[in-house]
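This part of the workshop introduces the protein records we will be handling. The question running through the whole workshop is how a given chain folds. To make this concrete, we reproduce a full record directly below:
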Amino acid sequence: MEINENVFRVLSACAISINFLLIILILRKSPKSLGSYKYLMLYINLFEFTYAILYCIEKPDLFTKGSAFFLIANFKQSIFPKLMACCSVLFYGGFYGITLAILALHFIYRFLSITNNRHLNSFNSWKIILWFMGPPISGIIFMLTGAFIMSSNGDSDRFLSENYPTLLGNETKIEDLYYVGPFFWPKYNNFTTDQYFNWRTAGGAMIVMGLISLSIAIMVYFGVKGYRSMNKLIAQSNSSQKFRSVQKQLFNALVLQTFIPVLLMHIPASAIYFTIFFDKCTEYLGKIFTLTVAMYPTFNPLPTIFIVKNYRNALKDSLICVEDAVLRRSRTVHPSSTAYSVNTQVS
């Protein structure tokens, strides 16, 4: 299963365009009732915009087989110097950690907003910096785990030399690769079939899966509490119709924005970790995960654009203006071309 590189280029271009559009809509068309949520939305979409740009510039290869799951940079194919190519691999893993924390933060904020909790005021002061520090810290933990716990060694070098297509085809050498990732069941140095359990990788996997589990637990906990609180809020007659409508729109957008990363990122990554633990992973899972991760920044902004009424109407008005301009130009060009044709025939 080989995926054409043009697919990734198209997805990257779409992700950059859509996230840029949403950033403009947030800045210019946000309803006042959004409050400080506007800044959280900007924070999230600036991250996704940056991720899409970096992914477009440098896309590490993702290789899975047996009990191995590696992010690989090939120095020969990279446009960056070696140090930056290595960093791109770590950033790739770090962005996954940031995504986990952003989802959790998103749910916490929606709950605080719906319940009008006193801690919501922290998003309107300098304390918002403390909230926004959470995702980068999660990303740094992922990067450090990859760099120091799931780094390459002689056993993983041997495994790649025997299985990685680029090395098998003599297109490059192991010295031209930088890679990180879990490898649960390497072979002994002096045996061809006997394997041992890599406790170092197990420690790194516990950190990664622990952060994934924490993110999911926060999402479920605050999601359920937020949904119940929202139903109570909508039932209250003393809340304005506009406020209730905006809250419902944002919660619906949040539900879809949760479904997208869970489907495109959490499930494939969890499936890979589960299969490599039992030494049953295939290369196809890695290819699928490469594609779904590329799709994430393209699809994730869409629920906000189409569910939030102000953004949807602004986009609709813009499209109508473009359509009118095109049709007006067509009506202007068509009669003149017809007249020219008639005159030519008469003469």
